[in-house]
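Morning run. Coffee first, then this:
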Amino acid sequence: MLGDPDTFVRTVIREMSDEEFNRWLSAYVDSNGSFSCWLRPNAEVFAEPIFQLSKRLDDIDIVAGIHERMETGYLYTSWTHSSRPQARWILRGAQDCAPLVSLLVQYPLLSRKSRRFRIWSTIVAACLADEGDTSWEKYANWYAQLKAAGAMPPPSHFSPHLVEKVRDAADKIYQPPSEPQ
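And here it is:
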C-alpha cells in the first residue's frame, strides 16, 4: 500500500549500495529537483537556500525513500481540493542542504540544471561559512544569477540546424485543415 515503510520502492532504495544510490539520486535530482533561495535582508544570515523534489502523491514512496536515505530535510504532502496531490522532499537552510551539495559535487548533474546547482551550492557554502562578513549585495547578486540560470535561452543560442529540425517537426505535427472540395 502506498506510504507504507516496507513498500517495494522503499526497500529497493534502502538496499541500493551507496554508489548506486548516489548515482541514481544525482540523475533523479537532475530531472526532478529544484534549487532556489529566499533572500531575507533583515536577518542574521541574508539567504536561505532551498531544495525541493516534488512528485505526484502516488509516487510518495520514491520521495519518502530518498528522505529516509539522506536523513535530512523533511517530507511534505499536499492534497487539497484545489491542488494536485503531491509529495515533496524539502531541504531548507544550509545545514539541510549541505549533504545534497556534497553528493552532487561527487556525482555531478549533467543537464543545464548544473548551472543553477553551481550558483546554489555557492550560496549554501556562503551561508555555512558566514560570520557576518558576506554582504547583502553578494547574496542579491547570487540570487539574480540563480534566477537567470534557470531561464530558457533564446532561439539565437541554439544551432540553426536544431532550430530547423524543431520547426520541421512542428510543421509535421500541425497540419492545417484542408479546404473542403
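Strands lie at 33-39, 47-56, 74-78, 86-92. Good start to the day.
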